[in-house]
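Quick one - inputs below.
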Amino acid sequence: MPPAGLDNLKHIVVLMMENRSFDHMLGGLSLVMQNGQKKYPLINGLTGNESNPDTNGNSVQVQPNAKLQSQLDPDPDHHFPGVDLQIFGGTPPGNGRVANMQGFVKDYFTQTNDVGRSHNIMYYFTPDKLPVLSTLATQFAVFNGWFSSIPGPTICNRAFAHYGTSFGQVGMDIFYILDPILSVYERMIKAQPQHTAKIYYYDQQSSTMEIVNLLQNQPQLFGTYDQFISDCKTSMLPDYSFIEPCYNDHSGSGGGEILASDQHPDHNVQEGERFIANTYNAIRTNPNLWGSTALLIVYDEHGGIYDHVVPPACTPDGYSAKASDTGTGQAFNFDRLGVRVPALLVSPYILKGTVIPGPEDPANGRIFEHASIPATVTNFFLGNYDARTAREKNASTFLDSLGDQMRPDSDIPYFNL
Amino acid sequence: MPTAKSLTPTKSAAPIKSAAPTKSGAATQAAAPAISAAVTEAAVPILVPQPEPGSYNAKRPAGKLLQSQTLHLREALIKHMADLAAVLEIDPRSLKTEGEVSTYIRRATAILHTHHARAARK
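Output:
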């Protein structure tokens, strides 16, 4: 018999933010002390001693100096060759090279041409700067081992969240779905009995990153963020919802200023905090949804920002990117993951302070990546479903931390915006 | 199967901060939650600060992600226009059978339906 948390689960909501690493956003939680001891000893964050060499050969330690805006401009490199440098420290592709996470500062120097500014890539937020993310991470479940699916940029990583593969892409180019793989949304609406699924993008001026395959051919799958809020209020949320933040600063339809809320450098991180809090509140404040919804908050990739955990190997998805496409001089067979990203799971059925162990715990740790999203949604709502990649079939699913006891309302945080 | 671990229950790590009384650029906000009578520390409302005035910058150079997004939109528009052009090339007066007519109607309706579905979301 499944635990009550799974038995009552009717909705899965995924909010995917942009371009921040785990250590940058949550690594500071490991340095919070209480009564002379680490307050969160199980979170695999920073010790404060992690470092990278700069282009002058000096050691640059992590520092709690991350700012909410105006610090990561120009945008740190997060394309395939740059991430390869970040992970392998500049050792060229070849047999026997070892990942060491020592190339972040060197790579950011290629963007800044300024040794001092290249050190910014090692900065992390203290928890007080991110009250929303820090609160949700410590009050619900945080994943120590959630990685981006590809050591590369946004579009191919987001594809893994929709399809469990990027169909061989490692960059930002247009890709097309190859039979027999369907998006998780199409699987849901074509199932018998039929399920419901929607991608909520922020508004028409921000739109979606899933254009060529879904917006073009399946416009009925889309709604705006205002509709998401309305669907929460009226208890009309689909079985599965995927939320996209606002990707650009723009004027509102009725005037006013709409800030990007995706947290992509150099967008304002606080606006992203508000967006996460608003999404959480929308579910939290409807009693019909709160006990029947699991909210996953995850970042698509690390955005070129430092993390100390070496990305592990993974099950290949059956595709290969040519050496000419990777830019490293070597083909890529989708057999290792990208850099670690923040990921949190929210439900009243999760124990306060839950930490899902990752690679730091060889006995119990589990590895998650964006293929875990369609894997979990498909397994939970549809059960057996064969037409997907080996990568997705082997991906860890993320609902195990939902238990039997629903926490009382008085034990659950909420945010005033 | 390995299970999730739980930390010793502790107080919230997040301090309470005052929100600056500035304009919000946020979207429609969720309703304010009802405050439970039995308030614990976890249930103390956590105030989320607003971005500093001046954070908005629509003149910021567009990054590679946004540039890629516009290229993808253009690709979709070209496909859309090609579909439209293919239908417009057909002279309806040349359609003689119910089968030919029904095919034309299906293609035209699909294009119009897509157009109106998008327009309705504006």
